[in-house]
Amino acid sequence: MKNIHTKEHATMKKHILLTVVAAFGLLSVMVSVPVRQAHAQGNASKDFVPPIVFQAAGPTVESIQGTVDAFRAALGEPDNANGGPSASGRREINWDGGGNNFTTTDPVTPFNVFLDTRGAQFTTLGTGLTQAPPTADPVQFPPGGLAGLFNNPTYGTIFSTFSPERLFTPVGSNITQAVFFLPGTNGATPATVTGFGAVFTDVDQPDGSKKRGHRRASTLLKYFDADGKLLFSSFVPASPGDGSLSFFGIVFDDARIAGVRITSGNVAPGPDDDRKHDIVVMDDFIYGEPQVLP
After folding, report:
1. Residue 291 half-sphere exposure, CB side, CA atoms within 13 Å?
2. SS3 letters for the chain?
3. d(Cα 43, Cα 157) in Å, to the nearest integer?
4. What is the count of structural domains for the chain?
5. pTM, rounded to two decimals
């Protein structure tokens, strides 16, 4: 069977979504501390050791800060930033570097900005992936930011940042796929990580039924091994109100995560955020130091 990295290259060339035939469980408990329980993998073996789950949601940075810091600690120190391969630690991407933090980058896929330096590559079936603040610097022309990019001024107020100023989102899609490589090899050496977590803004829809008064959860993470097998799947906790922040991440005892598929919101950015459309974008990505496949 082709591994997930080979499949991902095929996805980039052919624009085909990674499909996995597997049952998955749901986890959607709103908490502000790590939850040491797991639901979820398809066709798990009896010796499967579930990951530690970290999740939180709330109206402010402080609502999730403690959980994010606990997740960082579980992955290990240090933050290796743009360094070469390391035996331990973690990598973080906050989308805020590269010059003017108010700049809106052109949507591209694959998004290879951090492929060589931090061992992560991101793709989407949409137009591409972009870094942008909720709204642009007033002196920037033409208008940028998510408000300008999607021609929707409400986006300047419904999103907030965990680490100012820029956020990350697919354009023309609500799907982002991540695969990992050994830093410093420019995508030549596939890798796996022990854990992956992400910050989201304005997740309004919690897990629930389709009955009156309830809406289906909108934001989902799926974790895959090197063979494309589903390891774990969970919805991201929600917090009502504009500008809220949510975090979800898992950590395994060993480096077994080769890819992550993120569904952010129930529709691609563009429409107004309302009862039918839960528009969600992303902030910081945090993951374990990429390790060479065994």
Report:
1. 17
2. CCCHHHHHHHHHHHCCCCCCCCCCCCCCCCCCCCECCCCCCCCCCCCCCCCEEEEEEECCHHHHHHHHHHHHHHHCCCECCCCCCCCCCEEEECCCCCCCCCCCCCCECCECCCHHHHCEEEECCCCEEEEECCCCCCCCCCCCHHHHHCCCCCHHHHCCCCCCCCEEEEECCCEEEEEEECCCCCCCCEEEECEEEEEEECCCCCCCCCCCCCCCCCCEEEEECCCCCEEEEEECCCCCCCCCEEEEEEECCCCCECEEEEECCCCCCCCCCCCCCCCCEEEEEEEECCEECC
3. 42
4. 1
5. 0.86
Contact 254, 294 (CB under 8 A): no
Angle at 21 between CA 19 and CA 23, to 5 degrees: 125
* Pick from 156, 113, 160: nearest CA to 137: 156
Give the model's confidence band at 46: pLDDT under 50 very low, under 70 low, under 90 confident, else very high: low
- Is the residue at 14 inside a domain? no
Give the model confidence (pLDDT) of 187-244 as tens digits. 999 999 999 999 999 999 886 545 445 457 999 999 999 999 999 999 999 998 999 9
Residue 47 pLDDT level (bands cut at 50, 70, 90): confident
Is 19 part of any domain? no
Q: Which residues contact 36 (CB under 8 A, 6 or more apart)?
A: 52, 53
Where in the sequence is the domain holding 117, given as residue range(s)? 25-77+91-224+231-286
Domain for residue 294, yes or no? Answer: no
Rounded Cα–Cα distance for residues 287 and 191 (Å): 12
